[in-house]
Amino acid sequence: MKKQPDKNAKADAEDATKRGDASSASPAAAGYPARLKHGMANPGQVYQRVDDQHARLPASRGKPRLDDMTSLQLADGPAQGPQARVIYRDPASGQVVVPSGRVLVRFADGVNAQDRAPALHAAGYRITQVLSYAPQAAWVESLSQDSGAALGGLQALEALADVKNVEPQWLSPRATKQD
Predict the structure, then answer these.
(1) I want to staple 22 with a disulfide (CB 3.0 to 4.6 A). Which of 16, 104, 144, 160 is the partner?
(2) What is the pTM of this model?
(3) Hey, where are the domains in the chain?
(4) What is the mean pLDDT of residues 145-164?
(5) DSSP letter assigned to residue 174
């Protein structure tokens, strides 16, 4: 018996594209949402994934160095290889940013972020650092340590009880003063 095509398959694919789940980009960009808001505190600022360019990060001992954006280089073509990173662009300003894979989660005042580690884990994240000056906030990363997975799960973080802000860490090239 021949399986009938799902009538809703096309609609589902279109919905996935609108959500940023589907990608015509390289396999490396497939897990990265097509559009991302800057954070809950500034939902009007939306970054768009750039599929025809990527960032090449400096390397140290063969690993990308996210702490050194001074030598960030943009290159044509989709992201491929360990030093290549998916980039996003702010359509309003043209600013290019690179997601680090870390996400800042801020809970309500009086809520200790470390106490929420089990809920964060259930959402697919682990705490990498609780801010000493703001114990209600923590840097988290996906359990898989994949930047695309970290960005793809932002809604799960936003849905946690007492969450006041969720904001990906965006890296950008250092601006230099031109004479």
Answers:
(1) 16
(2) 0.76
(3) 27-171
(4) 93
(5) P
Q: Give 11's pLDDT tier (boundaries 50, 70, 90).
A: very low
Q: Give the span between the Cα atoms of 43 and 36, in whole angstroms.
A: 9
Those residues whose C-beta lies under 8 Å from the C-beta of residue 9, and which sit 6 or more positions away, are none
Query: Residue 165: what residue type?
Result: N
**Span 67-95, average pLDDT:** 78
SS3 track for the chain: CCCCCCCCHHHHHHHHHHHCCCCCCCHHHCCCCCEEECCCCCCCCEEEEEEEEEEECCEECCEECCCCCCCCEEEECCCCCCCEEEEEECCCCCCEEEEEEEEEEEECCCCCHHHHHHHHHHCCEEEEEEECCEEEEEEEEECCCCHHHHHHCHHHHHCCCCEEEEEEEEECCCCCCCC
SS3 of residue 145 by DSSP: coil
| SS3 state of residue 129 | strand
Give the pair of three-digit tokens for residue 169: 């860490």
